[in-house]
Amino acid sequence: MKFGVALVCMVLWVTNAQAQSEGYAEDGRDIYVVCAPCHGPEGQGGGGGDYPRLAGLPMEYLVSQLKAFKSRERINIPMFPFTVERELGEQEVLDVSAYITEMKLESRLPDMPDTVDGYTRLLASKRVLQIPRAPGDADKGATVYQDGCARCHGDKGEGRPHDPPLGGQHIKYLQKQFADILTDTRMHPRPEKIIKPLSQSDIENLLAYFSILDD
Ligand code: HEC
Ligand code: HEC
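Above: the input record for the complex with heme C. Below: its predicted structure, written as tokens.
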């Protein structure tokens, strides 16, 4: 009897775990092969920030952005052919997102004893994404951020399920997102109240702040 109850609980637990993640990271790994030339094999981004870092972005956010690219609510010309239904169906969106959300990057090379060989060091270095310090006053940026952004993007820019992290992301990419939000080509909640009142120097200071968040 007890065994029966335990078995039912286990089956419920397993189906629940699958329903929660909805996507299968192992299948997502195969799909990611077409994303890697632009977003990097480790999801670190590329092109000096033309291609955003994807590694570790929240599952919900990834799914919502891929859907927005498909419906062209968010315009992304280089990526559009990869998101059409034939290339990336509903299940593939979930699978590739499940894979990407589990990718991990470091902000610096881990300490390794001298005995570690060159190849292991090389592999570790590929998983490091260091964001160069951007010009601007990071302290002033932090103040603007805490006043108007932290409640959604997190106290340290770490993000929340539907709000992207702003730390650990390429600055050139974030700069473009500001420009797109200001010209209504990228969606943002209540842009008139939240983003459009920012001055150019506020934005520069915010970018300086974002660039040091992962230090
Ligand atoms: C030809 C290059 C290219 C390929 C291939 C590509 N992307 Fe992208 N992707 C981009 C560009 C460029 C952007 C940034 C668009 C912008 O500036 O708003 C982007 C943005 C994204 C974003 C939004 C990130 C964020 O922080 O909001 C996601 C998610 C994404 N890509 C996922 C994928 C996935 C998954 C694949 C593979 C199925 C893929 N991309 C393939 C070029 C590419
Ligand atoms: C009410 C919650 C909320 C507040 C407050 C908020 N954001 Fe956002 N932000 C979001 C959401 C949600 C998105 C993703 C929008 C989408 O594409 O669906 C976003 C996206 C962004 C992006 C694009 C990031 C990327 O990776 O593509 C930037 C840049 C940004 N916000 C900056 C800010 C700044 C700066 C502030 C404060 C002045 C701020 N946000 C305040 C919710 C918020």
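Notes for the reader.
The chain has two domains: 21-101, 138-212.
The CA atoms of residues 39 and 45 lie 4 Å apart.
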